[in-house]
Amino acid sequence: MSSLVVNTNMQAIQAYNDLSRTDNAMSTAISQLSSGLQIQTAADNPAGYVISEALSFQSTGYQAAMSNAQDSTAMIQTAVGALNQITSILQTMDQLAVASANSATTDSTALSANEAEFTALQNQIDQIANSSSYGSTQLLNSSTAAYTVQVGAFGLSGPGGNSFQQISFSISAVTTGALLVNTSAVAVSGYASATSAIAAVQSALSYVDSVEANLGATQNELSALVANLTVGNQNLQAAYSGMVDVNMAQEMTTFSTDQILMQTGVAMLAQAQTSPSMILKLI
Length: 283
Known about the structure:
Layout: H1 10-35, H2 46-100, H3 108-131, E1 133-134, E2 137-138, E3 144-150, H4 162-165, E4 166-172, H5 176-179, H6 191-244, H7 248-274
Antiparallel strand pairs: 1-2, 3-4
């Protein structure tokens, strides 16, 4: 008989409380469906929010590290392309030196022609070495240019410290002066000088080959790091999505249920509010 009172309508209060809970659930469902996120603020899931922010931070670091490695790979490829041209030039210079070292059949006219071409090739090497750059960075005309690339998402405090977060490499100069085949050092204008030039040019070829080999090894290392970072970042994004993104199908089902409960709750609240009117039949 608790419904037959006027001052306190417990049925209406209970219906109102149920309706309020349903309204809050609908608001949450609408917010998640409209944003696609089940964690939007720390209030939604404090522990989940902290973990998701850490995952997002780490993923951003992975993306920056991948960009660093890819940019460094592009720089190395630029240097290697120029080194290939220098190698080709040195091979031609070696041919000229060998030809000029034949005193039996090479006359002064041929020697002069070979020397003119040899000098032009020396100038080409210097032109390539001094003009090859990546952005504003000169690549092939420094005595030894050292570079450090951040390829991890962490610093000194990260796993393994900087030894696993960074890699270093260098590119040696390949000007004719650095290769010891400049115009003041070698020539092919005579038999004796051409003989000396053969050894100098072949030594320069070996040196350029070693520079290319080191850069090739670094490029392979960077490519492997990019592949590893890509997989790692994909896994981080999948974990972040599983924690933060809302399951749209599941949430739509919940929202549909809440809509029905909202409609029935309003109807039942209206019915509960009319219960005290039955007292009038007792008068």
